[in-house]
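Look over both lines:
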Amino acid sequence: MTEDIHDLVIAGSGVAGLSAAVYAARADLNPLVLEGDEPGGQLALTTDVENYLGFPDGVGGMDLVQRGKEQAERFGAQFRFGRIEDAELDGQPLELSLSTGDTVSTRSLIVATGASARWVGAENEDELMGHGLSTCATCDGAFHRGDDVLVVGGGDSAMEEALFLAKFADSVTVVHRREELRASEIMADRAREHDDIGFRWNTELEAIHGSQTEGVTGATLVAHPEGYPGEKAESGMNVERETVEVGGVFYAVGHTPNTQFLDGTGVERDESGYIFTRTDDAGRPTAHTAVDGVFAAGDVADPRYRQAITSAGTGSMAALDAEEFLEALPYADESMATASAEAVP
């Protein structure tokens, strides 16, 4: 089903998409927000958010998302379940094919589809994600003061997570399936030289123990002297198993930006799939991508910070840039007049 042409579609309903929706709706753009398969994004997996401005006592991740949605709806944003599976972005209007089978036409698009943290497939990770299992030390490290914690991974991100967690935890153990780190030498040295950070080489996380009430209470590790013990266990080889008591587990095995639907379009991305945004003539950052009318916000264009507060900021940037783009279109006067007449006061 094809509909009337929208002025703005926002793909993603995490903090970046919701921030963009609030700004765009207040500008009378009547944005359509595609919520995706997991409304709320990564923040919906976080039980407590203590570092978001304006909530001195903290706020639940889902609560923060729901408040943002209600705020956007108050100003006239529309929400619909579904994700973009394919996009034709080489002319006006932009054509978006959705997972629901519908086709949506729009004059502008904000991509705020986020980046999904990679999980390792350990037993009970679905149940315990957000309950002592985390993919963000900066977000959740302060909840683990005095705990012994595990960090799973061997790259720079894992070293950064371990070093940050060492500020709070009694001990941090890096679990890596090989005996050599992928991290840069300087990051690896910093972690190795820290008194509170240890390493379990040729080891993988097999299971996490605990409950949503108690949180994480332990973990089962599997090891083999030649590395990659999980594969060896699956093939029937003998491996060593050990259950350890820990109060938290942190995954640091990378993120995958949700940009597959941009394959074959002119939107420029790095080798990992993160969207490149452009600077203006003065060299200042914008939310513009390489395609006119397409903007990016949040983790989908940010492999570095990945924080709710930075995502919200780039969401507002994207909405402001989209508004400016729409005002410059040849049919802007007619489009904006219609949007203003239909806007919710």
